[in-house]
Amino acid sequence: MNIGIVGAGISGLHLALRLQQFGVDTTLYSTKTAKEQRAGPPANFVARFGRTRQREHTLGVAHWNFPDWSMDTLRVTLLGAHPPMGFRADLLQPASGVDFRLYLPQLMDDYEARGGSVVIGPAELEDIHRRAGAHDLIVVAKGGKSIAELFPRDPRRSPYTAPQRRLCAGLYHGIVDDSMRGVDINIAPGTGEIFTAPFYSFEGKVRLLSFETVTGGPFDHLTHLSRTDHPDAHRQATLDVLAAHAPGLREKITDAEFRLARPIDGLQGAVTPVVRHGWARLDNGTYAIAVGDAWVINDPVTGQGANLGSACAFLLADAIRTGPPFDEHFCRTAEATMWPAARSVTEWTNVCVQPPLPHILDLLEIAATDERVAHAFLNNFNDPIAMWNSVATPAHVTAFLSQVRGKSLTQAG
């Protein structure tokens, strides 16, 4: 069998590397060379949780597996409370933040070094149709306007038709953390979220600062003010927002050192959450199946996009390994196999971009006073199915609390 994989993000690369381990012939289609990926601006800032890092070990690509760069602790602060309410927990499996402009090119190099074939060129709908004849199955792991024509929006699973948050993020110097290995999640109900986390990038250890803002909210202007045209004004506006809305974080900033690691290291934008139909029959009869951004796009507020892409890549690799025939039945079955993981992330994220529901606020308040609850809740970032099962409804929260309170702290994760 021969599989064509369109897209060299984490989904496409993890799938290509996994199929390579299974002895399946693959061709990876990328719109950029590894050199071009390294030279460009960031498209995202990704936290890879423990299960994704385990898959990297399985693939033999755990190149950044050193403790000094890990995310060991999650800290949550509910802004607006008087005083602000918060809790923290150590992660049983530390997460990691590596600039994808380093991560993805390295994995592409690994794939090629092991004999994989990479083709550089456009990846629009007509290109997929043109290349289909060379493969038994096309896997599309790259989003885009023309790709959306192939995999139309599924209205049953896509409640939003517009972005629910706007994003302003960057890699900075001058943000001080006691251990430099903690992740801060600052939640301002009805306004948005402010995150900081350690990252490994071109200048070594830096710190991510990210604003997820409700449109029209009190720090939404950060997402519209150009860093390129007005760098000093953007820097001062960022400091003013932190002073007004996250004073604890503002105190961790050394003004004289606070700056983007490099002028290119910021991004602004928004995404519309969507789930698309997961497969299509191409003109020549070959089937195309979607994974990653071609299938599901979630707001980055829960930090799960890349982790979900990796998880689905492994599930799809297992399905492909047992094929062919790669027909409609295969595509339906493979999509059904991946959907439980995708559904949990999608439902959880869709809740998080809305004002906090009362039962979730209750859970956060309990976590602030019960270390066992904080530990179990925050470690569920590594298990989205468990996370959604713990917060989906008031009854789920009650069951989660009952289960956690029946365990010792070491068992609660």
Number of domains: 3
How big a fraction of the residues is strand? 15-25%
CATH topology heading of the largest domain: FAD/NAD(P)-binding domain
Q: Percent range for helical residues? A: 25-40%
CATH-scheme architecture of the largest domain: 3-Layer(bba) Sandwich
CATH class of the largest domain: Alpha Beta
Radius of gyration: 21 Å
Specify the structural class: alpha/beta
- Please describe the biggest sheet, giving its number of strands, its sense, and whether it closes into a barrel: 9 strands, mixed
pLDDT < 50 stretches: none
Shape: globular
Within CATH, the superfamily of the largest domain carries the name FAD/NAD(P)-binding domain
Taking the alpha carbons of the first and last residues, their distance comes to 41 Å
* Mean pLDDT rating: 94
The helix count comes to 14
The number of distinct β-strands equals: 17
